[in-house]
Design a protein that fits this description.
This protein is α+β, with helices and mostly antiparallel strands. It contains 16 helices and 15 strands. The chain has a five-stranded mixed sheet. It has a five-stranded antiparallel sheet with strand order 6-7-8-10-9. It has a three-stranded antiparallel sheet with strand order 11-12-13, with helices on one face. A hairpin with a 2-residue loop joins strand 9 and strand 10. It is globular, with a radius of gyration of 25 Å. Bound molecules: adenosine-5'-triphosphate and magnesium ion. The site of adenosine-5'-triphosphate (ATP) has 26 residues, from strand 6, strand 8, strand 10 and strand 11.
Length: about 450
Amino acid sequence: MLVPRLNNLRAMDPEAIVIRIKTPSGDMDSSVDYPSLLNFNDLLVAIRDVMPEATVTAFEYEDEVGDRITVRSDEELKAMLSYYFNTMHEQRMNGLLPDPLQIFPRAGKTPGIRNIHGLKVNTRPNPGNDCTHTVPDSIANNSLKKSSAELKRILTNGQINAQDIHYQEQLGHGNGGTVYKAYHVIGNRVLAVKVIPLDITVELQKQIMSELEILYKCDSPYIITFFSAFFVENRISICTEFMDGGSLDVFKRIPEHVLGRIAVAVVKGLTYLWSLKILHRDVKPSNMLVNTRGQVKLCDFGVSTQLVNSIAKTYVGTNAYMAPERISGEQYGIHADVWSVGISFMELALGMFPYPQIQKNQGSLMPLQLLQCIVDEDPPDLPVGQFSEKFVHFITQCMRRHPKERPAPNNLMEHSFIIQYNDGNAEVVSMWVCCCLEERRAQQAQGRV
Ligand code: ATP
Ligand code: MG
């Protein structure tokens, strides 16, 4: 039994948590007084107590976007708890009672409803429930908190209302918009909300909203999840998944073995967009986001022509990451995105923009004349001695002056640099992001002293 066993231990955890075991026949809430002492086997034994007829060897939980993550070991259990503690913290900061940690056993057979082993049940207020038995689905669904899957449906149906969003800190400001970290009260999740002031007609607003609809269909681990967009007065707010590592432009120089894994994700993300006939059009380090789980995702791709045009009317300038053919106003296609991958990764590897005569102090938009050197000069190379041959070749290929000479999507995935780092090792990126964030925090703390 989960609780009595753990209650015997003397460790002092800051607080107990409630784990809700989701079974096909109903929910079982168990209080865990010392979560830091919980191990995978204890939890598995507790699950098997609840579902004795099923063969349970693993369970799952849902992340912030409702994707299921499997837990099969102590290490994965730790990751789940750490994710849950963060969520609890966010909920508290927003004056809410934390939801129980919901887990979904992976079972072979369907069990019956059971509580024969007397697990301690439901220690959190749950109206209409006298806290002694398994909660049937119908009652659970009536509880104040909705299930993640349901929330995902609500969110993806675009039902985020302005009044349900609590703005927290400002994450950054770009050409046209300001991005905030925010909390969606109904969905109990952290969002990134980009707010763009736009003085446009209602007709244009409707057109933008319909152009953004394709974002609901984007479903890739390498593309930021889009939740909703809405207009309030003359501002559009675009709500997406929050990435706790932020964008790559603030990371300075990134070591090649980390950059290799990031490049794999970026190439996969672009390949996915291209397969939907979407050009990104704004590939650059500030539109590549990372999180402490080691995920890398692309954001701010130009699905809405009207939105791009409306922003461009206010913010005049040319993007320094644009391919030469775009700077000189020629037609462009997928190969222009490939150039932007090359120049972005060169900057991330060197820790400086590859054209020294172009100073990007204030964002990436520049007067056209300043970018003429990108059109006129031979593209720069990465210095061979400092980087691997594969990496140097990858950058050189992406930054070929003539678009057709750059690798096509399939060739990009098959490039030896991408193949070398396509090992699914998210740990490398995760550790690097965590170290950088830690360093940043320490520097900020020093600055304060
Ligand atoms: P541009 O407007 O040309 O795209 P930009 O990318 O620098 O320039 P924004 O897109 O407005 O500007 O983003 C501002 C900053 O907000 C980013 O640099 C990034 O650090 C942060 N940011 C954006 N989206 C997210 C997100 N989903 N999660 C976390 N941080 C984000
Ligand atoms: Mg951006």
